Amino acid sequence: MKNMLTIISNALCRITGRNVGAQTVSELLIDLSEYVNVTSPAAPALAQTQRQPPKPPPVSARAPAAELVSTQSDQLDRPGARVVVSRSFADFTPQATFDIKKCDVHRLEEGPPLKAELTREQGLQYYHIMQTVRRMELKADQLYKQKIIRGFCHLYDGQEACAAGIEAAINPSDHLITAYRAHGYTYTRGVPIKEILAELTGRKGGVAKGKGGSMHMYAPHFYGGNGIVGAQVPLGAGIALACQYQGNNQVCVSLYGDGAANQGQIFEAFNMAALWKLPCIFICENNKYGMGTSVERASASTDYYKRGDYIPGIRVDGMDVLCVREATKFAADHCRAGKGPIVMELQTYRYHGHSMSDPGVSYRTREEIQEVRSKSDPITMLKERMLGNNMASIEEFKEIDVAIRKEVEEAAQFATSDPEPPLEELCNHIFSNDVPLEVRGAHRWSSLKSVS
User: Fold this and answer.
1) For residue 166, which of 288, 278, 308, 282 has the smallest C-alpha distance?
2) 394-417 and 378-388 helices cross at what angle (nearest 10)?
3) Strand residues in 21-131 grouped as ranges (E)
4) CA distance 199 to 216
5) What is the per-residue pLDDT across 106-153, written as a single tens digit (0 to 9) for each?
6) Which one of 101, 344, 366, 368 is most buried, by most CB atoms within 10 A?
7) What is the model's pTM?
8) Cβ count within 10 A of residue 31
């Protein structure tokens, strides 16, 4: 079989004038599909064009008609004879409807829909976002092990559908605040990869100018990144109060983990939000483990979507980006209608340990992690849906992957070569829009200046 693949690949190489190195039958079929028509026209040479990869987000729409890409080889022995190879793309399905898992509901007559529509452009965009977060987190893992990133570092790989689905369902003007596993949300809120990685390495070009690190990244309408367990939840309720006070029809998404779900301040925030009917979506990202403790060992009740008691709740498949998107839309509509807050539980899973100091296999088995990867991976699930409904090609996904890898590598180069912030900027930005002030240093003989 291997000899046959080599013979056919060499023949295809001689015909097309391009290097073809198929190692499997599937790779050979892809190569053959690119070069399906050999003719000898007498017309002038055709202009050489090349299909460009998609550039999400946003993803540019492709014309529904079949697209032909032609290349021209050198002249053959017979005068005027040319080999023209045409690459034909079947029409992609522009939109499809998928069945999604039913959400469990609490104090609601009905929940989110059981079907979700997905356009080709949306699918490629969601894939690009989730794959970018995955590659970025894997690069952060590598930089941490090289001791270029130091201190706390909590990675988000495995939970990408949560960030992508939530962002797809809310408006850019809506607000979001989360805990310390914040890299994914920092990206979906609009911060470039290089600024995220540079913040992790403590460089001047970081999103917080190298002074915040892994847990303290911010952007317009994104309030971090908070290191104190559960403390961001009442802050989110306060942001929702501001939205209500200003009457701007905006909502606040306030995220926390299952490990923080037993914090008293969360229930205090629930109470105030319900009393004042604040437009706040409280979201518990239940990744099954609070640090190294399973939810069954930490919580008398693991129905986190019911924890609001008097607040309606929904439990969602957090590994399915479409399920997360539809549930978040439902929750946002609930809040915008003036019905008050709502609690969401996203059932998800993290592939890494709690933080980079946690190997993640002392309280769970490698087989458990691999089973989730093989059966419920959010990126694979979306990719297979799109391929199965002819919404994209394998080649197209490969091109996106290559572009993302390149972007992440370039961002890593920036994050390791950018200078560290100078000492004189250590105390800057203590206050906003204030006059410069003196700040006492480590001892009374040293002082620094804070500039807003």
Assistant:
1) 282
2) 150
3) 38-39, 68-72, 84-88, 95-99, 104-106, 115-119
4) 9
5) 999 999 999 999 999 999 999 999 999 999 999 999 999 999 999 999
6) 344
7) 0.81
8) 18
**CA neighbor of 175 nearest in space, from 165, 166, 164:** 166
Question: What backbone torsions phi and psi does residue 24 show, to the nearest 5 degrees?
Answer: -135, 165
98 has which bridge partners?
116
Contact of 274 with 308, CB cutoff 8 Å: yes
Q: What CA–CA distance (Å, rounded) separates 259 from 293?
A: 8
For residues 270 and 397, give the distance between their C-alpha atoms in angstroms, rounded to a whole number.
42
Amino acid in position 408: V
Dihedral angle over CA of 284, 208, 206, 440, nearest 10: -140
pLDDT in tens, 165-195: 999 999 999 999 999 999 999 999 999 999 9
Residue 65 or residue 316, greater confidence: 316
On the CB side of 305, CA atoms within 13 Å amount to 20
210 contacts 420 by C-beta, under 8 angstroms: yes
Q: Which residue type does 64 have? A: P
Q: How far apart are CA 221 and CA 242, in angstroms?
A: 12
Q: State how far Cα 450 lies from the chain centre.
A: 35
Residue 133 buriedness (CB in 10 A; 0-12 / 13-18 / 19+): buried
286 and 257 Cβ atoms separated by less than 8 Å: yes
| Structural contact between residues 347 and 286, judged by C-beta atoms closer than 8 angstroms | yes
CB 223 within 8 A of CB 175: yes
Which residues 6+ apart lie within 8 Å of 385 measured at CB? 96, 98, 118, 123, 391
Helical H runs in 154-231? 160-169, 183-188, 193-200
- Residue 304, classified by CB atoms within 10 Å of its CB into exposed (0-12), middle (13-18) or buried (19+), is buried
What's the Rg (C-alpha) of the chain? 26
Under 8 Å between Cβ of 320 and 162:
no
